[in-house]
Design goal:
Rossmann fold, single chain, about 140 residues, alpha/beta
Length: about 140
């Protein structure tokens, strides 16, 4: 599958995605095939021309916002799947980016299965990633 990372998604995620998900291609909106600041309606049309299958974005309002139904329709018309990864607003600085990247890395293989079996463009909105230790009850503990 060909994935496009929107310019609002952490740029350094590409360095993790390419080796982990070989056989898939990953590009970023800001890497040259698209003009910076491109509006979403134009982005979907351009992404379709570039053979993009999935848009990965942190802009969850593209699909959720009632004021942006035209963006949902444009994504559907372009035949592009949509994967939204919300920011963890309580996280600060790099922790916010790390939580988003972690959520994507942990869930992408499951999303790919859904996209590959979908008969029409599909949207998946992930839950916000965690920026705190997710240890089992009674951990950490002394060894």
């Amino acid at each position: 599958m060909n994935f496009l990372l929107d310019e609002n998604f952490p740029a350094n995620s590409i360095g993790y995605l390419r080796p982990m998900y070989q056989g898939h291609s990953f590009d970023r909106v800001v890497d040259g095939n698209y003009q910076s600041g491109i509006d979403d309606l134009t982005l979907f049309a351009e992404a379709q021309k570039q053979g993009v299958n999935v848009l990965i974005t942190g802009d969850i309002r593209q699909i959720m916002g009632q004021d942006r139904l035209d963006e949902r329709a444009a994504c559907r018309a372009a035949g592009i799947h949509w994967l939204g990864i919300p920011q963890v607003l309580r996280a600060k600085g790099k922790e916010r980016k790390w939580a988003q990247i972690n959520s994507l890395l942990a869930n992408l293989r499951y999303a790919v299965k859904h996209f590959e079996s979908a008969s029409e463009p599909t949207a998946i909105l992930l839950q916000p990633g965690s920026f705190k230790l997710q240890a089992e009850k009674d951990f950490p503990q002394p060894l």
